[in-house]
From TrEMBL:
<protein>
    <submittedName>
        <fullName>MORN motif</fullName>
    </submittedName>
</protein>
<keyword id="KW-0677">Repeat</keyword>
<feature type="compositionally biased region" description="Low complexity">
    <location>
        <begin position="456"/>
        <end position="473"/>
    </location>
</feature>
<dbReference type="Pfam" id="PF02493">
    <property type="entry name" value="MORN"/>
</dbReference>
<dbReference type="InterPro" id="IPR003409">
    <property type="entry name" value="MORN"/>
</dbReference>
<feature type="region of interest" description="Disordered">
    <location>
        <begin position="451"/>
        <end position="473"/>
    </location>
</feature>
Length: 699
């Protein structure tokens, strides 16, 4: 321990900052911007804690009496638990600090990383000038744009001491403060002012950091002690005790922790799970302790209780359970504004807002270790957006939590992006995207995100038609529950979504029949995991689309209907958008002979003399593109037509007995891949069919 005679430091009243240059020994009066490094507080060595402040091993301030700061790998603050904002210049100096309330402090630095200007949102401004030794020699202070005063500094060496001569002059010429401050090894040793000469004793530790301060000339001087802790103290013997200290605001006593007889203000104290129990957390050693039988009214200010019962070591987060109650501790505290937790499969998700900063924690496999008194809790995500999910592959389920709350997706539906990530629609609104879904392992916790237009490249939307569609049902890596999902006909099941399709090289190729929740479905042609060709899509609302697809998007001629089969739109689609409306005449009821609409080169309905009816597109007066043909005997075909007016391509044919074939047609006849459902027996047959409607081989 060393003693120095030090005068009381007169300081500027403002907030200060660093990548900036700090020279405590030779320039102790230099202004500092926003303080967030150990050097800003004139601390040396491998400091861990001092005066209620905690630093990481790089010297970054991480905790300061209730405010916790978070940094990136470059040592820049990414945020704090008050949601304050920080801006940096290219050299790493904080140039703007903004409170959540909106008030700001702005800082400007020169090319030597010295603060030359600062301004607050309240109108206070300070401009600084330096000498050739990078020491402040002048400060000009303005208030609300008007000059208030100037401060001047000059420096001389007297033996080992640095003497700083200071004088203040107000804008009206009136002289203000004048005095001299003597510094030794960066600390003030004497102060000469108009009221007299003052000396102060400062005791420092072997790292040259202050541990005590008091007036040298008063026998009854009040001591201002500082307990410093260092990372190099981790393995040193320490005696930890729980006790009390006198609260400055009253005569009452408050709980405190003492290490080797000194009060340690960096120690967290929280209530325990058991009655009259305190939990003590030492962040230096990352150790949780339990202290029993804490009844303050039975104790005096001098009571000291040994802290020896270790709960958990080497972890800053902990779950502590007793008698069905539990507390989740983060850095020793459970002080949060709001908190939500739920189970995600076997895991517990804990989302909490510390002041205004949301962070997510997890206890893996909680349900299987619920009887353990102590459980390891980990930080799952520092992001304010907290969306996570798991898949239960054995049950074909998945679950989502958003900021610690389960999502009710009983009325949800799902659509898939090109990479297999599902978009979750809640109440018909695209809300979440589950990332990495296709390769998710059983009960693996993975991130989701809020939907942000990912379907824009995979959908078509026509005004008021409810035509949002998926582009793909990528089978690669999915759970094949039946058949051959590599080179044949197979079934893939994901949650409640069932896909029966033909596969080639592990991708859907040929035809696909997909059933979604809430009576939504698709059937039609596929190519390399994309809807490609003619297809029929129906939403859970009952609206539907019949028409062309390309690379997963509506492309070519097509039309949409509501659940009463009333035409909503009809026309030409390109890259998922309706670019040319062709159904205006039909929807307006324009009639020409047996035609309603345009039965020459457009969209219309034609009533044949034999009682048959066709609704769809025409070209050169013939059926073309896509449409629906209703025979007088009530059999129905919906699907592709070529320029000769014949059924060629994918379509759906309903027989008189209500049996249904969905598949390929050639020259007006069933011919190729498809699925036949027989109404009388209920049997479903899939494979390759001949032009008589009989299955001739499996695929």
């Amino acid at each position: 321990m060393k003693n120095l005679v030090l005068p009381l430091l007169f300081c500027f009243i403002c907030q200060w900052t660093l990548a900036q240059k700090i020279d405590m020994d030779n320039a102790p009066r230099n202004p500092i911007g926003f303080k967030h490094k150990k050097e800003h507080f004139f601390l040396r060595g491998d400091i861990y804690a001092s005066s209620g402040k905690i630093f990481d091993k790089k010297g970054n301030l991480v905790y300061n009496y209730g405010t916790r700061y978070y940094y990136n790998s470059n040592g820049r603050i990414t945020g704090n638990n008050y949601d304050d904002k920080f801006e940096y210049d290219s050299r790493g100096n904080i140039t703007k600090f903004q409170y959540k309330s909106g008030s700001t402090s702005n800082y400007t630095f020169n090319n030597k990383d010295l603060l030359v200007y600062e301004k607050t949102s309240y109108g206070d401004e300070k401009t600084y000038t330096y000498d050739s030794n990078d020491r402040v020699i002048k400060a000009v202070i303005k208030k609300k744009g008007k000059k208030d005063q100037e401060r001047f500094f000059s420096y001389v060496k007297k033996g080992d001491s640095l003497v700083v001569d200071m004088s203040y002059i107000y804008a009206n010429g009136r002289k203000g403060f004048k005095g001299k401050s003597y510094y030794l090894n960066g600390f003030l040793v004497k102060e000469e002012v108009s009221s007299g000469t003052y000396r102060y004793i400062v005791e420092v530790d072997d790292k040259r950091n202050k541990i005590d301060f008091y007036d040298a000339d008063r026998a009854d001087a009040k001591h201002f002690e500082t307990f410093n802790r260092y990372y190099s103290d981790i393995n040193k013997p320490q005696k930890i005790e729980y006790g009390y200290h006198k609260l400055t605001s009253s005569s009452k006593k408050g709980g405190a922790v003492y290490i080797n007889g000194k009060r340690a203000t960096d120690i967290a104290i929280s209530k325990g799970v058991k009655p009259n129990e305190k939990v003590v957390y030492d962040g230096l050693t990352q150790t949780y302790y339990a202290v029993k039988n804490i009844i303050p009214e039975n104790h005096t200010i001098d009571t000291r209780i040994p802290v020896t019962n270790v709960l958990m070591k080497g972890q800053p987060y902990m779950n502590y359970v007793h008698d069905g109650k539990f507390i989740n501790y983060v850095h020793g505290y459970n002080r949060v504004k709001s908190r939500d937790f739920s189970f995600l499969g076997p895991h517990m998700i804990d989302y909490r807002v510390d002041k205004s900063l949301g962070r997510t924690y997890i206890i893996y496999n909680y349900k299987n270790i619920k009887d353990q008194k102590l459980k390891r809790m980990e930080l799952l995500s520092p992001d304010a957006t907290s969306i996570f999910y798991i898949r239960e592959l054995d049950k074909e389920n998945f679950f989502i939590v958003d900021k610690g709350k389960h999502i009710d997706y009983k009325n949800a539906r799902f659509e898939y992006l090109d990479n297999g990530d599902p978009v979750i629609f809640v109440n018909e609104k695209p809300t979440y995207v589950l990332l990495g879904f296709r390769m998710a392992k059983n009960n693996e916790v993975l991130k989701g995100k809020h939907y942000s237009g990912e379907l824009d490249n995979n959908q078509t939307t026509s005004t008021n038609t409810d035509t949002t569609t998926t582009t793909t049902n990528d089978s690669s890596g999915y759970n094949c529950v039946k058949g051959d999902c590599k080179e044949g006909w197979g079934r893939v099941k994901i949650g409640e979504i069932v896909t029966d399709a033909t596969f080639k090289n592990g991708a859907i190729e040929g035809v696909a029949y997909i059933t979604y929740p809430e009576d939504s479905y698709f059937h039609g042609q596929y190519k390399n995991n994309r809807r490609h060709g003619i297809g029929y899509y129906q939403w859970s609302s009952g609206n539907s689309y019949v028409g062309g697809w390309k690379d997963g998007k509506q492309h070519g001629l097509g039309y949409t209907m509501n659940k009463e089969n009333k035409i909503i739109t009809a026309g030409l689609y390109e890259n998922g958008k309706l670019i040319q409306e062709a159904g205006v005449n039909y929807k307006s009821g324009k009639k020409t002979g047996n035609c309603t609409g345009d039965c020459v080169d457009g969209f219309g309905k034609y009533n044949y003399s034999n009682g048959d009816v066709y609704l769809g597109f025409f070209k050169g007066g013939k059926r073309f593109g896509v449409g629906t043909y209703l025979w007088k005997n009530k059999s129905v075909y919906t699907g592709a037509y070529t320029a000769d007016g014949k059924r060629n391509g994918y379509g759906m044919y309903t027989y008189v007995d209500r049996s249904v074939f969905k598949g390929m047609f050639v020259n007006d006849r069933i011919d190729g891949l498809g699925v036949m459902k027989y109404n009388s027996s209920g049997n479903v047959v899939q494979g390759v069919f001949n032009n008589k409607g009989s299955k001739v081989k499996d695929y």
